[in-house]
Design brief:
The chain is mostly beta strands. The chain has one domain: Pectate Lyase C-like. About 0% of the residues lie in helices and about 30% in strands. It has a 19-stranded parallel β-sheet that branches. Strands 4-6-9-12-15-18-21-24-27-29 form a 10-stranded parallel β-sheet, with no helix packed on it. The longest helix has 5 residues. InterPro entries: Pectin_lyase_fold/virulence. This is Right-handed parallel beta-helix repeat-containing protein.
């Protein structure tokens, strides 16, 4: 996660928020806009730093003036409607971005009508600060046993890790080299449920999994990564179901799935990624790497029934000719297929003539890329051409209108499809063993409640017809 020393301006609008019962599988057919916190009496305000635990009560305002830590063995519950405001001045003489470290357990229990918001002061939520990295993000350490992020908005993160940053002191990230993802996990035995949430406006990755069992479902990602990074980035020591998410304009990929760091103690990364909608990925990258889905270094990844719209390249599997090598190669038991690639007619305003020269999504999908495992990856996928856009017929999103490098999310968009859409037929049924969600039956038990992954839908993308 290398970083540059300059910022660019952008706007991000309100995002979609999907609802589900805490004990039921995530509902893939909700696409509700942000809601304002209901009118209440004057909210309770509190300023915190250092160790935090217990309960932050519903609709309260928590002002964070310094690094905060949920201590090992303790828990913090954040109830619906809580506004957590991080001071963008940072900590100390070098203004280290404020970090939210979780050594214990964290439970963010928002609702569709009254989400939690982890943000900065209202006057700092500006176009110019889209990628400013005003605070450090959530860092769940190797002692964090459980974390729930439900109906929660996380924004304006990605501060640079510098000398004095807790993540540098604890050896999680490197000072001067890394920027904070919005959510980091480390415990290979941890259980993490991230659902129905909005993860936007971050310099680095939206979610960076370095360990644990995870359900990542029904979230909306937008403007993740300034000069690199992905919406969801998975490493060795993880088992994750990633389903029913909208990923709009990640800098590099919607999904980067890698077993980097695999060892005797840190097992092979295993990921089921299905029924996601990925839009405008890869065009903002400084240089050319990825463009929607990138599977590398022996990750066992089954990636299917995803809807890819106006992304720069198809799914890539570098070193696919080196089988089952955790240092470099490709886990040849993976199934990366039965995806749907749609392309508008827009031309990108950023091209690299000395490399691919790709300026249109349809051109990238059909480019002879060295990382395309032809005849294996996407052998049965639907792929747009210059003369056949494979328009998915969204209810409200014109695939020919939004600029390829845009990352401004419009709350009026609706990624359901019209009746008769081609994405409603021809998708994979999910009947074979490879397609079974990891946590679709047994689920993950977090804070005494069982959360299960969504069932595979025989459609391309996160949403069906209205």
């Amino acid at each position: 996660m290398k970083w540059n020393a300059y910022l660019i301006s952008a706007a991000i609008a309100s995002m979609t928020l999907a609802a589900c019962s805490e004990d039921d599988p995530v509902n893939p057919d909700n696409n509700k806009p942000d809601t304002e916190t209901p009118d209440t009496e004057t909210p309770t305000e509190e300023t915190v730093e250092g160790d935090v635990s217990g309960v932050w009560e519903a609709n309260s305002v928590i002002k964070v003036s310094g690094h905060i830590v949920v201590p090992e063995g303790e828990s913090l519950t954040i109830q619906e409607g809580v506004q957590v405001i991080f001071d963008d001045a940072g900590v100390g003489a070098n203004h280290a971005p404020i970090e939210f470290t979780v050594d214990g357990n964290l439970y963010c229990e928002g609702t569709a009508e009254n989400p939690i918001r982890l943000t900065v002061a209202e006057e700092d939520r500006t176009e110019a600060n889209t990628f400013a990295g005003l605070w450090g993000g959530i860092v769940a350490s190797n002692t964090c046993a459980e974390m729930l992020i439900d109906h929660t908005i996380i924004e304006y993160t990605g501060g640079q890790v510098i000398e004095g940053s807790p993540a540098a002191t604890n050896g999680i990230y490197t000072a001067g080299d890394d920027a904070y993802p919005q959510i980091t996990t480390n415990n290979i035995n941890g259980k993490y449920v991230i659902t129905n949430s909005i993860i936007r406006n971050g310099w680095s990755d939206g979610i960076y999994l370095m360990g644990g069992q995870a359900i990542i479902a029904n979230n909306t990602f937008a403007a993740n990564g300034y000069d690199g990074a992905e919406a969801v980035n998975v490493k060795a020591g993880c088992q994750a179901d990633v389903a029913n998410n909208i990923m709009f304009s990640p800098n590099t990929n919607g999904l980067k799935l890698s077993s980097s760091g695999q060892s005797e103690n840190r097992g092979q990364a295993k990921i089921q990624a299905y029924n996601n909608t990925i839009i405008n990925a890869g065009w903002r990258r400084d240089g050319e790497k990825g463009g929607c889905i990138y599977v590398e270094k022996n990750a066992l990844a089954n990636v299917f029934n995803n809807l890819i719209v106006n992304c720069k390249f198809r799914a890539m599997t570098p070193s696919f000719d080196i089988p089952n090598d955790p240092e470099e190669g490709y886990a040849d038991a993976s199934v990366i297929d039965y995806n749907y690639y749609a392309s508008g007619s827009q031309k990108s305003d950023i091209t690299f003539e000395e490399e691919s020269g790709v300026a249109y999504a349809w051109a990238g999908y059909n480019y002879e890329h060295e990382n395309y495992n032809q005849g294996v990856v996407d052998a049965n996928s639907v792929i747009a051409t210059e003369t056949d856009s494979k328009d998915p017929q969204f209810v409200n999103f014109d695939i020919n209108e939004v600029a390829l490098t845009s990352y401004t999310y419009d709350s009026a968009w609706d990624f359901h499809v019209n009746a008769g859409s081609p994405v409603l037929t021809g998708a994979y049924s999910g009947s074979d063993a490879f397609a079974t969600p990891l946590f679709g039956t047994s689920g993950l038990n977090v804070n005494g409640k069982n959360y299960t992954s969504p069932a595979v839908q025989a459609q391309f993308g996160a949403f069906g017809a209205n």
